[in-house]
Amino acid sequence: MRHGCQPWRDYAGQKQAAEKRTGTNMFDYIIVGGGSAGATLAARLSEDPATKVLLLEAGRDFRSAETPAHIQMPNPLRAIEDDDYRWPELMARRTAAQEPRLLWRGRAMGGSSTINGQIAIRALPEDFQRWAGLGCSGWGWDDVLPYFCKLEDDMNFGDAPYHGTGGPIPVYRAPVEAWGHVDRGLMQAGMALGYGWCDDHNAPVGTGVSPYAINSRDNRRVSTNDGYLEPARGRANLTIMGEALVESLTFEGNRNRASGVTVGIDGQRRTFRAERETILCAGAIHSPAILQRSGIGPAKLLQDLGLAVLADRPVGQHLLDHPIVAINLRLKTSARATTLTHRHTNCCIRYGSGLAGGERNDMIMIAGNLRAHEQGDFDLGRVGVAVYDSHSEGEVMITSPEAGVDPRVEENMLSDERDFARLRDGVARLRALGQHPALADISEDITYGYSGVSIADELSAADLDAWIMAECSDAQHAIGTCRMGPADDPRSVVDTDCRVIGCEDLRVIDASIMPENVRANTHLTTVMIAELMADRLRSS
User: Which is the catalytic residue, given 163, 201, 477, 523?
Assistant: First the structure.
């Protein structure tokens, strides 16, 4: 039996009747969100010419050849500042000590893969074994590895049995001689301080200083718009619509069957029907917002907004991200980048903190060759440290039934003492690196972030905590707000086939389903999720 399908439905007959009634408004699958997951899923499902797919993206649609230079280039700092390619007013509070600040989320075809740092780092095998241990059968390391291999074209290690070649996402590592000064300084300091070398951080086992794997080819970003959608755009069975803001899901019958979506396009409201399934791929912020606007979420939140409750599930809760702080390097002239096209980072150090239950590679330190803006201020570099196995949970909550009103995002970072303990230790490690000649000698001075206080000064415990709380940010790796798990687990929003619990013919397939953190940037894992689920859908 097809998953999510009512056994009594005469699918072929209903499809034919619906085509006569609604014409081009009827599709087999409607996919909401054209980002890391949505573009991947649309391309894979439309490989079957008999399957009619509609892909809706809230931001602009554009062809690869139309991609502006500042989106393509190796340094993403211009891309993430362009309101035409992100949600321009979406705010989030990082810690209790901060006011809300802009949250960088892609809003264009390719989603956040169009503006991210192009980091192609995999999660660890242990991450997926932990998912399986939480009841997510079918998501262990042996289950997901084939899809990591399928998505990638690894230019350095493609012949390894745990890598792939010929996939839509190129994986490239710049040679050390092409690195920036901060990259090389971090590498040298890290090696001298005993972190060791790992030439492939995407191998199943490895830790220490590594060249970052980058999803680019010939110094050009390859987003999911480029890698997946561009080759699929000529298919007659694939319809792609940009500037299409989904207002809510539509339902029919007394079984909460999702029948499609209501969308705002060019100031008009249109309804599209999904004969098989509606699939949310709008990411960890906007997938829960769409579900909540549609009556699926915490009952009290919905009732307070005057919304009927179709399914009382913890939608929007369990928000996780990777907290990060940094030391800033005011670079000597000889160590500065000279152009905005210069790659912002090529080197990282992964390590295990051994603190507060921290396991292998629960932490990462990241080089930053420049923090330049369009004005051409190239004197500032950085080295950041982030907790990649964090526990502090936040929440996404709509404040209005209107789709044009951004949800409220409370990340609640460092509310779990385990995260705070490891970040304090991480700052001590940053100071040791910054005081090593490999970094000290390329810098005029090095400070605790933007505090103006030199790292030569050891902060008191109270001052250190206050600085961390004030400057802690997220790594733009939001997950968990439509948490996957067993259907009988009250924490679950979707089951292990990504079906929304309490509804029919409705799935969420994106970063929001991740039940626990992955010790990596989230882009590759999100693409993997879509690849795996595309195979399940096509075989169901």
Answer: 477
